[in-house]
């Protein structure tokens, strides 16, 4: 071939080389089932020769469009996968990545305001069938390669969608992860840990007060909009969008709350289906799931400060059987007593114990009394060990678990005193008197000084009514000694009185997610204002008043919303402590849930 003197720019190639026809014809063959089947059969015939040197060819074969195709294509593709992972295990990860990548809806580009936003395609009617085929492929791979689970979990973690993705994308992926946990039970604990860790990120970024404020503001805007003339709506796009907002439906207006609500529906449906067979509770399966959830609770939920909703997964599971609820309470009790655990976790365990006793309406009074019979004697023993020593004074850093246990007892009695007294007032009063609450209140450690004022005041009113202990003298004395102030978050000379020195929160405060709340509400003890108990609110000086959005039950502004903190260590807790502060339809089976 002559090269010298050749005009390269203006001279066409002397010879045209083609591989399998032109590009247009090749692309057209991708739509033909017969052609795809033919290619897959050829790959199967030479699978033993497809070594690492042919990885680019294998990657092309793995990307063949097989999902949603005819049964013949799907069957041939699954046969190709089984042959490939059997003969060439070096491609196991590639096959797993291909399957897991299809756990989410296909990505489409949506233009909003001139900006291309990539997200899921919600209109794909083939999603249920495609997901079924993915799980069929994954089970087939696991059958041929027993070590599949060891390689699968990192891929599931790697492919988890960013938490800011759409509710649809998150729902599909989490649902598929939980389906994996059904047929690969060895991965269930890891899968639950992955899902709950992501849900906690959503939970702590959407405080309860913020969710309620957004929902309430939207309702008010809609009511205001309805009073305007109809013509104004057509001229104002913002008003139109408000008018069509989902405030009156089961869809959350708060975007993060909507994602979290969607995932809670999926998780609670999974828990229900795993524990029931043909509508009946399977005790062994339930116990196994409980063990997994408690491990995840200890590792992720318990150390997370101010999460609002994710912990209700365990609350819901415990409602299936009293033995589960009692096991959970016993677990919290062990954590509270344990000297080997950091004080911050012991304090959190006390908060969970008190909140669970107060709010779980499926707990009989006998269980409540049994827990009080553990907590109260422990408080008396603690007082015995401290009252005559050099540390017998009010100090949160020294006695944090003690103060949180005191608050748990006070909080439990506020909610449960009537059930204790019902039936036999004389025996109920005798039991409450036997607790010797006066000694706890009067001790030198002074728990009323650090407990939430709302809890203290309500406890004082109830105990005064039944002449168990008179707390108001101590409350007034404590109020004369100003609590330490915290640094202002806005600078200058403005400071706030710290009304929550324990930095406590009640994990089972009211549940505000709309759709998933349908499963929680029947199990939940709401606060009922005692009509015959007048609460004496002792006036305290407050520089910064709390807003209505901070109010929760009788805790009127006493627990201001704080940023959730995941995975707190004792050191980080100390710095945080002192720093500024399907719509309308019943739930359906998890495994049969459509997309």
TrEMBL record:
GO cellular component, one term: nucleus
Pfam families: RRN3 (PF05327)
Source superkingdom: Eukaryota
Any one biological process term the GO annotation gives: transcription initiation at RNA polymerase I promoter
GO molecular function, one term: RNA polymerase I core binding
Disordered, as annotated region: 549-595
Family under the similarity heading: Belongs to the RRN3 family.
Name of the protein this chain belongs to: RRN3 homolog, RNA polymerase I transcription factor
Name of the coding gene: RRN3
């Amino acid at each position: 071939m002559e090269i010298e003197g050749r005009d390269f720019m203006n001279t066409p190639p002397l010879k045209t080389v083609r591989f399998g026809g032109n590009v247009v014809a090749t692309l057209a063959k991708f739509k033909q089932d017969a052609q795809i089947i033919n290619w897959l059969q050829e790959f199967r015939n030479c699978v033993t020769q497809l070594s690492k040197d042919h990885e680019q060819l294998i990657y092309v074969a793995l990307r063949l469009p097989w999902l949603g195709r005819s049964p013949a294509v799907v069957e041939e593709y699954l046969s190709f996968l089984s042959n490939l992972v059997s003969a060439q295990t070096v491609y196991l990860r590639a096959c797993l990545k291909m399957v897991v990548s299809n756990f989410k809806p296909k990505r489409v580009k949506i233009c909003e305001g001139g900006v291309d936003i990539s997200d899921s395609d919600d209109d794909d009617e083939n999603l249920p069938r495609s997901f079924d085929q993915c799980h069929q492929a994954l089970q087939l791979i696991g059958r041929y390669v027993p070590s599949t689970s060891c390689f699968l979990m990192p891929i599931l973690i790697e492919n988890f969608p960013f938490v800011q993705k759409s509710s649809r994308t998150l729902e599909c992926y989490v649902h598929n992860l939980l389906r994996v946990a059904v047929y690969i039970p060895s991965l269930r604990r890891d899968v639950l840990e992955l899902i709950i860790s992501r849900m906690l990120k959503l939970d702590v970024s959407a405080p309860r007060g913020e969710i309620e404020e957004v929902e309430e503001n939207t309702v008010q805007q809609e009511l205001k909009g309805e009073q305007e003339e109809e013509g104004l709506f057509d001229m104002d796009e913002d008003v139109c969008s408000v008018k069509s907002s989902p405030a009156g439906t089961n869809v959350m207006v708060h975007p993060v709350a909507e994602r979290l609500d969607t995932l809670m529906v999926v998780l609670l449906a999974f828990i229900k289906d795993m524990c029931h067979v043909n509508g009946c509770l399977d005790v062994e399966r339930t116990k196994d799931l409980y063990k997994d959830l408690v491990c995840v609770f200890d590792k992720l939920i318990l150390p997370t400060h101010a999460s609002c909703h994710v912990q209700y997964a365990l609350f819901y599971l415990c409602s299936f059987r009293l033995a589960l609820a009692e096991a959970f309470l016993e677990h919290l009790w062990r954590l509270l007593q344990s000297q080997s655990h950091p004080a911050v976790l012991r304090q959190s365990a006390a908060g969970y114990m008190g909140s669970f006793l107060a709010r779980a309406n499926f707990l009989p009074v006998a269980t409540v009394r049994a827990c009080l019979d553990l907590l109260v004697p422990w408080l008396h023993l603690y007082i015995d060990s401290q009252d005559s020593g050099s540390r017998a004074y009010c100090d949160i850093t020294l006695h944090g678990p003690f103060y949180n246990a005191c608050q748990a007892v006070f909080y439990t009695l506020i909610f449960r005193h009537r059930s204790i007294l019902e039936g036999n007032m004389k025996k109920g009063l005798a039991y409450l008197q036997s607790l010797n609450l006066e000694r706890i209140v009067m001790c030198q450690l002074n728990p009323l000084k650090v407990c939430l004022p709302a809890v203290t005041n309500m406890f004082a009113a109830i105990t005064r009514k039944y002449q168990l202990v008179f707390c108001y003298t101590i409350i007034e004395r404590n109020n004369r000694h100003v609590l330490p102030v915290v640094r202002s978050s806005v600078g200058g000379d403005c400071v706030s009185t710290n009304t929550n020195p324990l930095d406590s929160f009640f994990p089972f405060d009211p549940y505000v997610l709309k759709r998933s709340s349908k499963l929680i509400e029947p199990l939940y003890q709401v606060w009922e204002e005692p009509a015959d108990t007048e609460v004496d609110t002792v006036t305290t000086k407050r520089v910064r008043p709390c807003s209505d959005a901070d109010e929760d039950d009788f805790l009127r502004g006493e627990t201001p919303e704080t940023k959730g903190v995941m995975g707190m260590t004792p050191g980080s807790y100390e710095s945080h402590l002192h720093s500024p502060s399907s719509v309308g339809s019943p739930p359906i089976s998890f495994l049969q849930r459509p997309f």
